[in-house]
């Protein structure tokens, strides 16, 4: 069985360097970490979880509690977090927060009862008092959304520049009656995206446009979109997430509204097949692989140093202009 000592001998480095590199501990040059990972793979090294647990008092397992497992954004996030965990020899447990604070508290408690070393959390709204107690007991990183009232590390996305580009594009393309369907106000992304979109639309010259909210539920979003289309007759819809966009597209199909030609559509949370649709959907996207890597890095740092300063990493969103908002307006 290949050990860390074998890897160290192969590379001519200290065993501690191998151990710290495989655990992605800060302070080791990235080039050294990569050499160690490549040597570990080449030699067929496999982490002995039981021995490591006895030696360190840790399980080698981390958890991810997503907002809703049926949301494609969170499914992709889970995939990339798992990729990072596997690269570091860690086991990832995934649970569904069901976009419900009480459910999220229950599954977070279940994860901690499994003796995970740390937890990654996509907050579903203001935390329950029970969840606040749980995150105070275990290393925790919030990703995509803020966890109000909790002193935890976080990885977030700032959509401001992408939304500004979108608003200016819609103005220059001749749209006159924008409408917004945001995510739930209870989440930082729902409220934050609605605020940023409203501010940037106003800066681009619009006023009095409707802003309605919907849960990340396609049926509810469809009802909201049908009401908007009937009552306000917008010529472009800006949707606060891909599940909301699904509901809006269903509403437009049911009402016989031609996407792009009759009403433009732009959405947050790009998906790999949005550019394959007809028309392809204009989207604001996040760098999910980078978010996942930063999240796992922060969690491992928090596990190593529970009392370190709280960190917040913010990435910029990007805009992909596509056919759904690029047709000529009358």
UniProtKB/TrEMBL annotation:
Pfam families cross-referenced by the UniProt entry: LacI, Peripla_BP_3
Gene3D superfamilies xrefs: 3.40.50.2300, lambda repressor-like DNA-binding domains (1.10.260.40)
Entries under InterPro entries matching the protein: HTH_LacI, LacI/GalR-like_sensor, Lambda_DNA-bd_dom_sf, Peripla_BP_I
Boundaries of every HTH lacI-type domain copy: 2-56
Name the record gives this protein: HTH lacI-type domain-containing protein
Alphabetical keyword list: DNA-binding, Repressor, Transcription, Transcription regulation
SUPFAM superfamilies xref list: lambda repressor-like DNA-binding domains (SSF47413), Periplasmic binding protein-like I (SSF53822)
PANTHER family tied to this protein: HTH-TYPE TRANSCRIPTIONAL REPRESSOR PURR-RELATED, LACI-RELATED TRANSCRIPTIONAL REPRESSOR
GO MF term list: DNA-binding transcription factor activity; transcription cis-regulatory region binding
Keyword S-adenosyl-L-methionine in annotation: no
